[in-house]
Structures are given as structure tokens and as C-alpha cells.
Amino acid sequence: MTSFTFPTDYYQECTYLQDSQQLEKTLQEVLAIEINSISELEAWLQTEQYIYDEITEAMTGHQIDFLCDMTNLSKQQQYEYDQQVVQPLLTTYYALFDQKICDHPLTSQLNDSKYGLMRRVRQTQLQLFCTENIPLVIQEQEHITAYRQLIGHLTVEWEGEMKPYAFAQAQVDHGDRTIREQAWRAIQQAFQQIEPQIHIIMDQLIQLRHQIAINAGFANYRDYIFVYKNREYRIQDCLDYQQSVATYLVPAWDRLAKVLQQQLAIESYRPWDIGLCAMQGAPFEDQDQWLDRVEQMLSETDTYFGERFQHMRAKGLLDVDNRQGKSAGAFCDPLPRSQESFIFSNFSPSFVALIALIHEVGHAIHNYLKLESEESMQLYHHREEIAELYSHSMELLLLDKLSIAYADEQECRHAQRELLHRAMMMLIKPLSSDQFQHWMYTHPNHTHAERQAEYLRICQSYIYHPVDIQGLESEISIGWMSSAHYIAYPFYNIEYAMAQLGALQLLDKYQQNPSQAISEYKQGARSNPNQSISQIYKQTGVQFDFSSTSLQQTAEMIERLLK
């Protein structure tokens, strides 16, 4: 692995953020500005946007600094200061800003095509705001931090040595079944060691979130979060979606499992056999080779994609080094003041690492294209159903470029099949995750045993339906603990499946006309965010459709492609 020095100047610092009195004075001055005309209202919104971008970028930078090096005490203290001191102050004043705009008689005269989404989001935020929830949100962040630190320091025993968690993750797809099983069991053993702590963290988060919902006037957190996220579909739509996946996709998943079992020539299809497990090695040896190959894949797909990635590399906007003390997983965060994007990834050399980076590049490209649209800049509201469309699509648009990472023709074919196999998994697994969260938050007083039993039941109904888990029930029942989404991003899962449906439609178009599919990808990513999700999907050349008919057609398409 090449040496890596993490940059310190990739984001713009906000000097007055460190002085809470000066910060509050700045916010008070913005709040006190008089608005007597439409032009003054728009000028006020621009001033607010400038302050918001400045503060958001600095706080995002502090969080990235902490997640990149959770052993650094000063970085942790800065992050905790932001959460415990700055965020409560911002929450209070942002609510006052919302009140100012929602109550102003001129707000209704703003151009809906530019300010419509902003107006709807503000009304929702104002509806949900209550001062009693501010300290609860602080406590929520403290528990999330505790979880991240646990996972960031997690080690796995491997042949008598302690290895980073990311190392074992990379072995789960190994071509040697013995090594796959060893890695899978080593990961489970590592999580069993921290199982009590994670249970306690989840208990506290569920109770905090339930109280937040009660304080805001809701019966439970599930009902609260649907309003909080401004979802354009109902709870019942999600329940119907879960049922459609069980009806149409799980049988297809079962058929695929039988094919994989035959290919692997094994008597029993076990949890460590879910991947195709046919690739014999990692698609890169070191960080530079990894980045070079991804850059080439992007450039050969579209010049703009490659240029943006080159720009990010040159500006130090990537941290993909695998090291201990760094948070697990991968993400892409926008830096609104600098109008940049930052990609974080922590995986050992593997197929998963390659695809995870491409996924995050999709988010970055989407962010850059949004910035080219003036409408995108008015307190842009992040909708995961839209964001994930462009990250999942980027994975599939590069399907035919996997030969750059896998020069051997047979290895490349295995990698392409694995990507399609994971695309099908992404239509199923998020629905089981969504169902589990519906249960957890509508049964907030459940026990650890009940939680584990429910998770096991759901897994057996979906992703593990064709898998022999005999003797592994206790390990499977705590599988949720390895996903940060349950802890840090509640009810952010079903959006992956929705977006994957759109991405597969775009892949189908790409196979018929690559240039048109790329053009529509970029057109949709630039589109006016004040439109509905369905309208933005349409401008991307796909349909926002998770009906039973759509799922059935998609299952047939994936099976056809895999054959």
C-alpha cells in the first residue's frame, strides 16, 4: 500500500464557528433583516444560503476529519463541540428562519419552480420542531459516535493475528470456500464480542427516537420519519412493496441460488456462498493502481466523468486508504461552500472496494452536476431516492468497463455477473431492512431476544430464504449490527431498492444506446430539484415505479442478463 498523507485544507473553515457568541450574533443579524419586497426576500434567502453553506461545509469537514482518524483526540473534540454546542444553536435559529419565511406574506409569491421544494421542506421542519427535542438529538449523536468508534477499532482474529475488520470483509468473496467461511465466522465472532454494547446503543437510540416522535405529536418514530423525510409515498406503499418483493423477487433469488450452488458444486448453500465467489483475486494491488483503473473506467465511459475524478484526486478530495482507527464503510459528502465533493472509503483490496468507490463517485458526479444548475442552490433538500439513482446507475453504466480492472476475460465475466447478482440483492435486502425498522420503531419496548428473533425471521423470508443457516441462527440474528444505517441513518434503506429499479432501466437503455443513456443520466442529475421524484426520474429516462409489475419485469431482466 502506498503511503498516504491526509490533507488538511480540502474544505473551507468557518472562523466564527469556534465562538458560540459570535455565531449567535451572526445568526441574529440575519434574522433581524427586514424584508419588504420580493427582491429583498430573495436577497435574504441568498444571505441565508451563504451562511448555511459556510457553516455546513466546516461542520462536514470536521466530521470527515474525525471519521478518517478516530484515534485523534483533537479531531474528536472538534466534532463533539459541533454536535453539542453548535448544532443546538443552529437548530434553534434555523427554526426561527423557517418561521420568518413561512409567516411572511410575500413567500407565497416566490417562483414555485425555484423555491417550491424549499418552501415545503421549511413547512415540515416548522411543523416538527420543538425545543424539547434539541437535547435528545444531541444524545442521539453521542450514541452514533460511540457506535462508530466501536466499529472503527474493531479487529478480527485471523490465523493467530489481529487484522482490521476491513481485511476480513475482503476475504468473504474469496474464491476458496474455506477462506470465505473462515472470514465469515471470524467477523461474526468479532461482533459477538461487542454485541452487548451495540444492543445498549440501539436500545437507547430507539427510546430517544420514540420520545422525539411523541414530543412532535406522533404515535411512533416510524410515522414521524415519513413526515420528516417529506416522502412522496405512503407507509402502506412501503408495506405493499415489501410484499411484492416477497412475491416476485425472492423466487427469482431462490432460482439464482440453485444455479450458484450447482456452479460451486456444493451440497449445502451457506451464508458465505451468497456471492458468486468465482473471482480469484482482487482487481488491484495498491491504492494508486485502484484509482488509476477507476479513472480509466470513468474516462472511457464519459469524458466528464473522468475529468471530475481527476479533479478530485488532484485536490485531495479522496481518502480511500485502508487503515485501523478509521470509520468503516464508504460515503460521499458535498462541500457546498467550495462546491466540491469528498469521497471516503475504507476497504481492503477487493471487488467490493472497487464497486463501493464507483458508487460514491456516482454521488460525487451527481453533486457536481447539481451545482451547475442555479435552481439546485436554494437550500437543496437531499432526497435519497434521487441521490441513490445516480450512484447505482454509475455502477451499472461501468459494467462493460470491468475488463479494465479484470484483464482476464473469464475473470471479467465473473465480475460482471457478480455486479448483476448484487443488483438483484440490492432489490431484496433493503426491503428486509425496511421491514425490520418498521417493526422496531412500532414496538419500541421490545427485548433483545425479540429483536434478534424478528431480524432472523425477516432474513429467512428474504435474503437468506434459499440459504442453509442451520447452526448459525445466533450469528444471523445479530447481522444488523454491522450496518451503520440502523444506527446512524434510520429508515434509509428502501431508497436503495427504489433507485436500483431505475438504475436497471438505465442499464437496459445503455445496452441499446450508450450515448443516449449517458446523456439522460447527466440531464437528470442536473434537473430542477423542485420537481417531484417521478419527474426527475423521467428526465433521467426511467420511471419511478415500484409496482408489482415493475418488480416482476425487473426480476426477469436480471435473470436474462445473468444467463
Automatic annotation (TrEMBL):
Ranges of residues in domain Peptidase M3A/M3B catalytic: 175-515
Cofactor: Zn(2+)
Keywords: Hydrolase, Metal-binding, Metalloprotease, Protease, Zinc
Database matches in Pfam families: Peptidase_M3
Cofactor binding annotation: Binds 1 zinc ion.
InterPro entries: Pept_M3A_M3B (IPR045090), Pept_M3A_M3B_dom (IPR001567), Pept_M3B_oligopep-rel (IPR011976)
Domain of life where this protein originates: Bacteria
Listed PANTHER family: PROTEASE M3 THIMET OLIGOPEPTIDASE-RELATED (PTHR11804), PUTATIVE-RELATED (PTHR11804:SF48)
Family, similarity comment: Belongs to the peptidase M3 family.
Protein name, as recorded: M3 family oligoendopeptidase
Organism (species): Paenibacillus nicotianae
Biological classification of the source: Bacteria, Bacillati, Bacillota, Bacilli, Bacillales
